[in-house]
Every structure is written in C-alpha cells, then in structure tokens.
Amino acid sequence: MREDLLHFIWNTHKVQPKQLKTTKGEPLVIWNYGIHNHGSGPDFFNAKVEVEGQLWAGNVEMHIKASDWYAHGHETDSNYDNVILHVVWEDDVLVFRKDKTEIPTLELKNVVTPNLLDSYQKLFKNSNHKFVNCENDFADVDDFILDNLLQRLYFERLEQKSKLIFDLLKDSKNDWEKVLFTLLLKNFGLKVNGDSFLSIAKALDFSVVRKLQNDVRALESVLFGMGGLFDKEEITDNYFSELKREFDFQSKKFKLSGTQIQKPEFFRLRPHNFPTIRLSQIANLYGSQQNLFRDLMNADTLVKIQTFFKISASSYWHNHFTFGKESSSSSKSLSKDFIDLLLINTIIPLKFCYAKKHGKDVNDELVSLITVLKPEKNTIINNFDKVGKKTKNALQSQSKIQLYNEYCSKNQCLKCAVGASLLNRIS
Questions:
Q1: Cα distance from N-terminal residue to C-terminal residue, the chain
Q2: What domain range includes position 290?
C-alpha cells in the first residue's frame, strides 16, 4: 500500500460521498474533496465536509496509518492547524491538532471496492521485472488519452530543458546569441562529448567568436586549442602545425585559457562524430552565418531551419578524421538525422524559451515542427514500441522519454493518465 493510492482514491472520488462514517461512528458527508496540493502542507486544500450535521471548510491530510501524523511531526506544525479531516488506510491512533482538539478520521480500507485494490496490486506486481508496470495493457490504452498525455509531457519536457537555457541566459547577461552558441556546441558533442564541448563554450568569451566569424580557420584553431587537441607534439602534419600556430597567436591576443576544460574523447565514437569533425563543422556554421540566432528565431518552417545547417567541415577533413592520418574521401557535412537532433535538443527548446521570455505563445508552431521529425531511436523508444503504440514522430519519442524517466521508472503510475485510466476501467 502506498500513499499515492490514497491520493488517487480521494482525487477521483472513489469513495461513496454519502453513507460514510468517521472512525467514531459519526455520519460523514463529503461536499467538496478539495484541491490536490503537490507542494508542502496538507494534501488537499479547501475541502468541505459535514461531520454529524456540522459543516466544516478546510484542508484534508492523508496517511497510510493514522500514527504517521505524529511520525511526520504535524502535531506541532501550524500548517496543519486547519485540517478538518484525516483520511487514512488504517486507523491505529487518535490524532489531535496542536491545540489538542481531535481531528475526525475516515478509514478507507473498508469503503473502496476490492476491484480497485486488485487492479492496483496487479499494476505493481513484479514491477522489478517489467520495462513499465502497465506493459501488458499499454497497447489497449485509448488513443485520445495517450495522445493528450504525450502532448502534455512534451511541453513538460520543454519546461525541464528551459532550466539550463535560462541559467545560461542569466550567466551571459541576456545574450541570446551566446546561449545559442553554447547549446549548439554542447549538442554537437552529443552524449559522449556534450559536457566537454559545453565546458569549451563556457570558457570562451563569445565576443571572440563574433570577431573570428569571418575567419573560419582562426575560429577552428581556437575551438581545437581550447579543447586540447594540439597537445600531441609528435604530429608533423602541415595543417596541424598551421592551426596550432594560429591558436598560439589567438590565445595570446585574446588571453584564452583552457584550464577548466574537460578534454573531448574519441573513444567509443564513430569517426564522423569525432571532436575534430564536429568542432570544424560548428566553426564553418558560424563562418557562414552572421546573425544565426535572429534568423533561426524568425524561421518558422522545417525547410527554412534546415538551410542554415547545410554546412560541412573544412576541406582538410574531407580525407581525414584525425590530424596526420589520411583516410578515404567522404562527405563531412551534417546529416539529416544530426540536424533533426539539433532541432529537437537546441532550436525548438530555444524557440520555446525565447517566446516565453517575451510573453508569446508559439506552441502550435513548435508542435508543427516537432511532429514532422522522425522519432529518435534508443532503448526507451524501442521498448515502448515493443509493448504497443508505435512511436510516430519526435514529439512522441521526446514525450515517451519524459514518461519513462519521470513516471514509469519512479513508479508514479497514479500521476500518469495511462495508469489512472487502467484503474478507472474497473472502479
């Protein structure tokens, strides 16, 4: 038994509002269940109940056992002075407010249907051996319920991503161009080098990027140098030597320091994701765009946004993946899948935050953008597809990642529309 089931029972009115009695046998009528409180304080605010003919307005607190009232220290907390009803699964002790007045108690275990308890126990049975608790029933969930849940979860995920963006905005003194550069650099690093590239972006004054935008080789040398990619003294490659000299010059000119930077990794990466390739690509991106943030915020279609990312690494990298080791020639332009990831993880969240900062609603535009992108492929999405309801687009894949990370993996089934709908079927 978990307290979230008690909240679900109360919030969805699974007790008969009439013919109830307190644990002292007093007639109890529930006129208003109150508003569910997800913060500190009593569990439900502004309820209205009638106890033995006396109408009371105030708050409701819920516990598995009545004695939890004392275990949680509520008897000395003034936030609980206005509790008018204590709702528990098991009444094991009398409960009093701070002023020594007794609080009426409703015991739930005998006033809910056995079917509800059976379904609840079935949902959590063998949860350690399942991908998600509802995997046996997930495919049967009504499409309307699931679609609404996924759209809500997508914006919940955007809100989570907003925290980093607004932190970066504060650190940069409201320089949106700097924020865009930082996010792009982080996401060019993908999972393996994201933190490393982020440390480069934070250590590099964006004014240097602005000053070097028209000189791709100089900007490339600064990114490589800040990332510690010139540390191998044994390389005699001409391009390596030229870039290293360039970085030495720019480093003295702008007083650059990479002491706090996490060095990027090559291990476990496909060659096209090597830091050499990705850093060269972003140098060329900024070399081809003078007002990238402004232009991206004004672009309202996928095609318009994609045009800004039709760039490639510098010509040296056409037949290299690392300094001094020639390889067969291959395109080092950004792939469509990579651009889609930039849209999902950088451009759309940034559009969301920029609009929010200026009091604008661009939710429909963002939904239009995200729903034409292919869903991501990862373990979470693959497992959801196996249990039913194939993932159709990037909105759904982002939402399912949010669903799994914030609800399924934390057993928060009763805060999820899917879990609630499964219990509501039979109760």
A1: 17
A2: 172-334
